[in-house]
Design a protein that fits this description.
The chain is 43% helix and 21% strand. It is an alpha/beta fold. α3 packs across α4 and α6 runs parallel beside α8.
Length: 294
Amino acid sequence: MEDGNSRMEGYQQRAQMLVEALPYIQRLFGKTVVIKYGGSAMLSEELTQSILEDVTLLKFVGMNPVLVHGGGPDINRMLKALDVEPHFVDGMRVTDDETMAVVQMVLAGKINKDIVAEMNGMKASAIGLCGIDGNIIRARKRAPENGVDLGSVGEIISVNVDLLNMLLKDQYIPVIAPVGVGENGESYNINADVAAGAVAGALEAEKLIYLTDTDGIRTQIDDPSTLLYVASRSDINNMIEDGRIQGGMLPKVQSCLDALDAGVRRVHILDGTIPHPILLEIFTDSGIGTMVTG
């Protein structure tokens, strides 16, 4: 009898989860959700499958997901295999011509097509792109950082939303590698967080989701119990001013604020190293990460 009761409790819990998700599915039906995927989540096949299942499910319940991916670890491995030493300035990759060729090959080639193949294996209609295709991401050379020429590192000028909207209307899931194109056809390495924010802003997305290596924004960086489930712009600015947001979290929260300025309604910072983080964040009442609001 106990086994029967346990099974019934399990069924009821599953039913309750579906009921809890219903209003969120209704609210987000037809809306655009941009997801930035990279970091540690890309190093595990199980986590990769979990995240791509989440993205595919969003499409099947009526949303318009767009996936922007990074691939820093894979780029570093390829550079090492070619005996090219990577260099960074304030977290940005110095990208000479040789490095740019590797960046484009790894991001727009292997990683992008691997993601598309796996999603299409889930019966999604994913289509792989980089910013060069259809001039999706127009860019120009970024100014030197602390006096250092970063090479082919770009800053975004514009995003071709016409092409992306056409693909979304035709029920495709765009999967975008963050390689931009210059005025004369030159390629630029674009920070994936920045690219995702620019794409989300140009599409006036309902949500932008950053999958990261942390659980979100904490009021005390070393104390998981201080995680903020909701943070306003003023909350973040205050935490930057008093030093509670620093280091690698600074560019992430700045990308959040830039996306809000560009017209994104909500930005989420989630731990991408747990199974099904997207579903747990947007289809449950409590969520698992930090939602940043205007």
